[in-house]
User: Fold these one by one.
Assistant:
Number 1:
Amino acid sequence: MSSSANHAVSYPRFLVRLLSVATDGGLQFYAWMTFLTAIALVGANAWAHQVADGMVLTHMTDHVSWGLYIANFTFGVGLAAGGVMMVIPAYLYDDHAMHDVVIFGEILAIAAIVVCIGFVGVDIGRPDRIWHMIPGVGRFNWPMSMLTWDVLVLNGYLVLNLHIVGYLLYHRFTGRKPNKRWYMPFVMASIVWAISIHTVTAFLYAGLGGRPFWNSALLAPRFLASAFVSGPAFIVLLLLAMRWLSDLKIGAGPIRTLVSILRVTTVVNLFMLASEVFVEFYTGGSHTAAAQYLFFGLEGHNDLVPWMWTSIVFNVVAAGIFLTRKGIEDNRFLVAACVLTFMGVWIEKGMGLIIPGFIPSTLHEIVEYAPSLVEWKVTAGIWALGGLVLTVGVKCGVAVLSGHERLVKG
Amino acid sequence: MSDSADGVSRRTLLKAAGATLGAAAFAQALAPLASWAEGMSSEDFLATHYKELDAEGLKTALKRIEEDTKKKTGVDVHVTADAPIPGVKFGYALNLSICIGCRKCAEACHEENNHDRKTNNSYIRVFEMDKGSIDFAKGTVDYAHPVPQPDKFYMPVQCQQCDNAPCVSVCPVEATWKEADGIVVVDYDWCIGCRYCEAACPYHARRFNWQAPEVPAKEINPDQGYLSNRLRPQGVMEKCHFCLHRTRKGKLPACLEACPTGARVFGNLLDPDSEIRWVLANKRVFVLKEELGTKPSFFYFFDE
C-alpha cells in the first residue's frame, strides 16, 4: 500500500520536474528552441496551405506519386531502428559502460518515430479521414496491406521506447533500483521490434511487383545495413555534443563501441549497394532502366545523378575514415565521417530509393521530380519538430542521469 | 537553483508568456485549415463506407451528393448506385490491328467521367509504338501528327480490372475493392489519399486528385454513379470503372461508343455466346505484363 501511495506522489512530481527541466535553460538553450520552433511554424503553415489548396502545391504527379515526404519517412524509420544499436551491446553483450548512454539511443528512436509519423501524416491527401485507419472504428486492412503493418509496428515501437526510457529515468529519479522484470523483456522486445519496423517498411516497397527497382529480396537487408550506419553515426554526434554541452560524463568506451559497429556496417552497406549495381547492370534489359536513371541518367534525364554520386562518395570516404586509427582517435575525423555517412545514407535511402521507383513509370514514361518549396518547408518543419522532441528528451535524460534531478536531494 | 523567490516567479511568468506566444503563433500558422474545414459538412467527415450503407443509408447518401453538387455547381445531377448484375463478369478486348491512335476513347472518357478540364485527365493513355516491338520504352503518349503513321501501331492502356489486383491488397483502409462483376472501384468518401495503390499498380491506371477537379457547369455529365463518375473530392484516388453507371444498365462504355474503328469489344466473360468470348477463343490474345500474375480482365488481340 505504501509503495503505491508513494508512486501517486512521486510520479506526478517526476513529471513536473521534467516539465521544468524541459523549459528551463540558458540563453543558448532558449535560442536553439526558438530557432526550431520557428522552423516548425513555417512547416505547419506550409502544410495547412497544402491541406486547404490540395497536394497540387507539391511537385508530385501521377507519375512520381511519392516524393520528399516518403523519402524522409523511410530514412527516419532507419534512424529509429538504428537507435537500437546501442541496446544490443549494452544488454545482449552486457557492456556496462553502455548502460547509461543506451537511454539516449532510445530517446533518439522516440524522436525519429515522431518524425516518421509526421511524414506519413503530411503525405496523406485527406488527413481528416485518418480515423478510417483505426482498427474497429474504421476499416483496417490487416494483414493484407503492408501499410497497416507499418502503422502497428511504428506505434508499438514508440510505446516500447517511451516505456523503457520513462521507467528507467523514473527509477533513477526516485533512487530505486529498477526491477528487471519491468524493463528487460521490453528491452529485448525493442531489439526485435527495431528490426521489424525496418523490415516492414522495406516490404512495403519490395512487395510491389510492378516496380522492379524496389522488387528485390535484398531491400530489407539493405535497409537494416543502412539503418545501422545512420543510427550509430547520429548517436556518436549526439554523445560528442552532450560531452561538450552537458556535465554528464560520457567515457570513450561507448563511442569506441559505436565506431566498431560503424566500421562493419558502412562496409556491409557499400557491399550490398555493389551487389545490387552488379545484378542491375550485368543483367541489363528494361528492368535496369531505373538504376540507369539513378546512376547515369536515362534518355537525357539526369536530375538524380549528382545526388547519388555525392552519396556514394560520402559513404566511401566515411567508411575509409572509420577504418583508420584517426577515425577513432581524432574527433575531427570522427565527426567528419559521421556527418558524411549520415548525409550519404539520407540521400541513398531517401530520394535515391523512392524516386527511381517511379522513373521510368510502369509504362516507361519519364517524368522527373524535384520537390516544391512547400515540400521543403514542411520537411524542414517536421525535422525541427523531431529536433524539439530530441532536445527535450536528451535534456531530461541528462538531468536525471547526472543526478541533478532527484526525488530526495542528497 | 539559486533563484530568489522573486526570480522564480519572474521566470515562470516569462515561460507562460512564451508558451502563450508559441500557441498563438501555431494557431496563426494553421489558419488556412479553417477555410478548408468550412467547406466540409459533418456528413462529409463522418461518411460511412459504401459497403456498410444499408438501403436507407444509400438513399440518403445519394441525395446528399445530388444536393451538394447542386449547391456547388448549380447543376441537377442524378446519382445512382447500381449493384453488379448476377451472372455477369465484365471483360474488355482491344484490337491492336485496327486501332488508329485517334484518342477518341480518351476524349470520350474525359467527358463522360467529369474529369478535371485543366489537366485534361482521362483514364486512358494511348501509346504510339514502333512496329516490331511491344516495349513501352519505345512508345510515347506525346505524339502530335496525323494518325495512323505507317511504321507505328497504337496501344491504349487503361485499368486492366485485375482479378489479382495489387492496388486492392495494399489499400490500408479497404477504400478500393473488386466488385462481383469484376470491376475494381474506389469509394471517394472513404479513401484517405495515401497513394499506395498508385505505387502498386503496374499499369499506371490510377489517378490522384491533386486538387479539386473543375468542370464548367454546362459540361457536367448529370448521369452519375456513386462509385464511378460523380464529381470527385480533392485528395482522393480515382480510376477507370468500366463506366459502371452505364454498363450495369446494359449500355456500353463511353470509350467503346466513341471508337471510330470498332477496335473495342466489351461484354460478359461468363456468357459463352458473347462477342468477347468469341474473341478470346479465336484470336491471338495477350494480356499486359502477364508475368506479374495480376490476371487482367482486359485483353489485347490481333487480326492478321
Note: The first helix of chain B runs from residue 5 to 29.
Number 2:
Amino acid sequence: MTSARRAPGRIAVHLLLWGYAVVALLPLVVMLLNSLRPTSEIFTAPLGLPTSPTLHSYLRVWTDASFSTYFLNSLIVTGGAVLLGTAVSALAAYPLARHDFFGSRVLGAYFLAGLMLPIRLGLVPIFYLMDSMGLIDSLLGLTLLYAASGVPFCVFVLSAFYRSLPGELDEAARLDGAGEFRIFGQIMLPLVRPALASVMLFQFVPLWHEFLYPLVLLRSDEKFTIPRGLSQFFGEYTTDWSALFAGLVLATAPLFVLFVLATKQIIAGLTAGMSK
Amino acid sequence: MVQARELTVPRRRAVRTGTGRRYVPRWRVLAVFLLPAFLLYSAFIVYPLVSALDYSFFEWRGIRQMGFAGLDNYRDLLSVYPYDQQLWRAFAHNALFFVGTMLIQNTVGLLFALLLFRYGRGKRFLQAAFTTPYLVDPLVVGYLWSLLLNPTFGPINSLLEAVGLDSWALPWLGDTRTALPIVILVNAWQWVGFPMLMFSAALAGIPAEYHEAARVDGASAWQSFRRVTLPLLTPAIGVVSVLTFIGNFNAFGLVYAMAGSTGSPAGSTDVLGLLFYRVAFVEGGVEAIGRSSALAVLMFVFIFGVSLLATSYFRRRERRLV
C-alpha cells in the first residue's frame, strides 16, 4: 500500500532527475551540433539538427581565426608552467618535509601562506613588474607567473607525501654513501610519482582557463592563449555563428579528453598516496 | 652550520643518521633544493601582493609614485564620481549573486544529493551529467549561453515560441531587470554539481541507524530530515557556503563573456571583478594604480574577513552538535 501511495512521487523524482540531466547536457550538445551546421542553417532553423554535417567551420576557425596559434600558445604556457612549478616545488618540498634545518618551519609557513592569498590582488604590481622586465606580451612572462602561482599548492601536497615515506629509506641510502641529490632523484622522486601526476593535473585546469592575466598581459594576436583568443574571436566573428560554436568546442575539447584519459589515474594516484 | 644545528627544535619525524645525530644537509645543498621555488614564488606572488598594499597608500601620477597619501585612495573610491556609485552597485550585485547562488544552486544541489542518495540505476550517469558543465571554462559557458539566449537566432527563444510561450521570448540578457538573474542561473547551471558532490559525500557519512531511530520514534520524513540530516550536514554546508562566497565575489570570466567589461546592459550586471579591471586598466586615468590597488585591498580584506568569520561560525555550530 505504501509503495502504491508513493508511486506518483517516485515518477516525479525520475522526471526531475532525468529532466535536469537533459538541461545539464543539452546546451553542450547544441554547441557541438551547431558547430557542424553552416551559419545560414542555424539562423533559419535555430532548433534544427545538422542535415549535412560539415567540418568547414573548424577548418576556418583553426586556420583563419588562428586557433591553431592560440592552442599552441596555451599548450606551451600551461604545459611549461605546470612542469616548472611542479619541478621547483618537488625540489623545495623535499628538504622542507624531511630535514629540520634552521628556518625550515618559517620557510614552510611562508610557502603555505600563498594558499590563502588571492593572487589577483597583485594584478597591478604584476603588470608593472612584467613591464620592467620586458615580459609584457611574452609567453615566458605568463609561464613564469603561472608556474609561481602553483608553488604553494604543490609544496603543500608534496610535503605531505614526502613526510609519509619511512625515515629508514634515506638513512640506509645515506649510510651507503648516497648524496642528497641521489637520494632525492632515485628514491624520493619515484616514490611520490602518483602525487606528482595529480598535482600537475590540479594545476593544469585553472591555468588552462585563466583569462584575466592574459587579458592584461598579452597584446598581440600571435601570443594569445585560448581564453584570450576566444574573447578576441567573439568580437570579430559576431555573425559567423557556426564558427563561434566551433571555437567554443575547440576551447572545451582538450579538457574533456584530458579528463576522460586521466580520471582513473588521478583517483588511483590520490588513493595510493592516502593509504600509505 | 653548527650553530644552525643547535638552534633547530627537534621534530617528531626528524631524519637521523645511523650515528644518532640528526642529519642536516649543507647549506649549499639546501639552497639548490629551495632557491628556485623561493625565488619564483617571492618574485611573482609575494612581492606583487605586498606591493599592492604599498601602492594603495601612495599618490600616483600615471606610473610615477608621488608622496604618501594615507587613506586618500580609499576615500576617493567611496566619494569620487563615478566610483562612489559604481562601487556600491557592484558590491550589491555581488551580494545578490551570492544570495541567489545559495538559494538556487546550493539548494538544488542539496535536493539532487538527497534524491540521488537512494537512487538505483543510472546514479553514476546522473552524477556525471550534473557535473559535466563544471569542466567547461567559465568564459566558454558565458559565450555559449549568450549565443543560446540571443533574442533573434538563439535556440532558447525559438523553443519558447515553438511551444506557444511567445510572451516569454524576451531579450533576457538585454533587459536590465533580467540580465543579473540570468547570469546567476547560468553560473548555477555550471556549478550545481559541486554542492551536489559535497552533500552526497556528507550524506554517505551519516549512519543509517540515526534515521531508523528517528523513524522508530515516530518522526515523519520531513522531521527526520530537519532534525537529523540537516544538522549533520553542517560541516558540508559550511564549506559550500564559504567556497560559494569566495567564488562569487571573485567572479570575472563568466560575467565578462555575458556582459562585457562594463556589465551591460547599463551596468546592471557589473560586479567588483569587472570594476577592478576597469579602474586598473581601462578608465582609471592617472590615479589608476593607487585607486585600483586600494580596491584590490578592500576586496581582499572583505572576502578574507567574511570567510574567516563564516568558518569560525560553522565551527562553533559543529561543536554544538557533538
Note: Chain A has a mean pLDDT of 88.
